Model the fold of this input.
Amino acid sequence: MGQVVKQAAEVHKIVFACEAGMGSSLIGANQLKRKLKDAGLAVEVVATAVHAIPKDADVVVAHAGLAKRAEEAAPTAVVIPFMNFVNNPVYDELVKKLKAGQPISS
Amino acid sequence: MPPPPVLSLELIRLGEQASSRDEAIDRVGQMLVDGGYVQPAYVASMKERELTMSTYVGNGVAIPHGTFDDKTLILATGIAVAQFPHGVTWDGSNIAYLVVGIAAVRQEHIGVLANLARVLEDETVAKALWTTTSADFVYETLGRPWQDET
Done:
């Protein structure tokens, strides 16, 4: 997989993906939604199972163990892997870049 | 017959004790089995899932659930809450005090999870849930109607 880069202005839909789409992704999506809202950013966030990632996803946040499957499911999206829900630095980095208008890359 | 409620007082147990993560998952898993939400094999799926990725989500809360392939073992969407005031070692240094077992067929449970996400951001409420002796408090905190503010 080559590296995918998106400009901040191109990011309209962020998908939080987990294995089953039952629990973890919903919690993660809610956490991210809150941070985006606090930053005044209007970006859609949806939670799905990794096999059901919508094709129009611009950014996919997924557990590192699922990142490869996420890249295959959404080849045009920037896939951002994370390791742990606790003190997850991914949210703040993503929000900061979007707010500053910086490019997002995998 | 209408489906059973996603969360109910019968699905909340306080003051539980478990000496391991698997034992804690057995507890919430059995609650889901007894409530008619899942087939017994789902409990093994919940344990297996932890091996690939911990469901510890912070502030003393873990949300064990089965794998995608084992969704076929779910009969109805349900959430079982077990409180372990003495804590259960979940993964590494993370200790879970509130174990929220999830079986979800569709998305009927997103309100409860959204409430839970909010609890995770508020250490005071999270800690209240670790030790409360009121199942009503747990029910009201997690089961209150939820509306997306965004």
The mean pLDDT of chain B is 91.
